[in-house]
Amino acid sequence: MKFLVWCLLFVVCWPLALVALVVYPIVWLVLLPFRLIGFTVRTVLDLVWSIVTLPLRILTPRRRFHLMA
User: What is the reported pTM?
Assistant: First the structure.
């Protein structure tokens, strides 16, 4: 999808498309640490949620549905 948008931009305004081609990797590198921080925070929050809900999951009985043949 990004490539198609770039092609459309290249047809409409090729200097702007070339600038976008140069700037896009730089912006991606600048935003990479924020993605890593977001991934780390998401993982830690999932771990905390699993630890908090563990006693409830242990105490509640699982319902198992058996198919009768």
Answer: 0.57
The answer to whether the CB of 9 falls within 8 A of the CB of 17 is yes
- CA-to-CA distance for 33 and 51, rounded, in angstroms? 27
pLDDT (tens place) for every residue of the chain, 69 residues total: 989 998 998 899 999 999 999 999 999 999 999 999 999 999 999 999 999 999 888 888 777 666 665
Sign of CA dihedral 32, 16, 10, 18: negative
| Degrees, nearest 5: CA angle 47-55-57 | 85
Measured at the alpha carbon of residue 28, what is the angle toward residues 9 and 45, in degrees to the nearest 5? 130
